[in-house]
């Protein structure tokens, strides 16, 4: 989940973590830094929004200090995958990141 900061609703963060822990989820917090965005529409700093395919993950970067930590954490979590980083600043201006603009299809017969 996102590693929310002190600027985010602390009560919400606490409740969310309590519910997820109660349901048996192991929480791993990824960097989250939308705080420099000029409006509420931009998605710069939303590292959790990455597409995961069979054995490949496309990782967003934003030219922020959190890029390196996000890449390390995701690579540690998904060992055995191939990774590619992509500068996502232009995409994020529109309010989404890589998972928002991709479509994963598992059944190749659709294209037969």
Walkthrough of the structure:
- By secondary structure, this protein is of the alpha+beta class.
- The chain has a two-stranded parallel ribbon.
- Strand 1, helix 2 and strand 2 form a beta-alpha-beta unit.
- The protein is globular, with a radius of gyration of 15 Å.
- The model has no long low-confidence stretch (mean pLDDT 88).
Structural class call reads alpha+beta
Largest sheet: 2 strands, parallel
Uncertain regions spanning at least 5 consecutive residues: none
Relative helix content: 25-40%
* Strand and helix order: HEHEH
Shape: globular
Strand order of the largest sheet: 1-2
Query: How many H/I helical runs?
Result: 3
Give the CA-CA distance, first to last residue: 37 Å
Give average pLDDT, whole number. 88
Strand content: 5-15%
Count of beta strands: 2
**Radius of gyration, CA atoms, in whole angstroms:** 15 Å
Secondary structure: elements and pairs:
Blueprint: H1 10-22, E1 56-61, H2 66-77, E2 82-87, H3 89-92
Parallel strand pairs: 1-2
Brief summary of the model shown:
This protein is 26% helix and 11% strand. With 112 residues, the protein is an alpha+beta fold.
Please tag this protein with its features.
single chain; 112 residues; two-stranded parallel sheet; 2 strands; 26% helix
């Amino acid at each position: 989940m996102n590693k929310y900061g002190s600027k985010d609703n602390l009560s919400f963060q606490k409740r969310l973590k309590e519910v997820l822990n109660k349901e048996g989820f192991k929480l791993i917090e990824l960097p989250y830094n939308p705080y420099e965005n000029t409006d509420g529409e931009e998605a710069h700093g939303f590292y959790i929004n990455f597409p995961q395919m069979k054995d490949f993950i496309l990782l967003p970067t934003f030219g922020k200090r959190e890029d390196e930590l996000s890449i390390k954490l995701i690579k540690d979590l998904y060992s055995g995958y191939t990774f590619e980083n992509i500068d996502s600043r232009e995409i994020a201006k529109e309010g989404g990141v890589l998972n928002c603009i991709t479509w994963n299809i598992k059944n190749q017969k659709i294209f037969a």
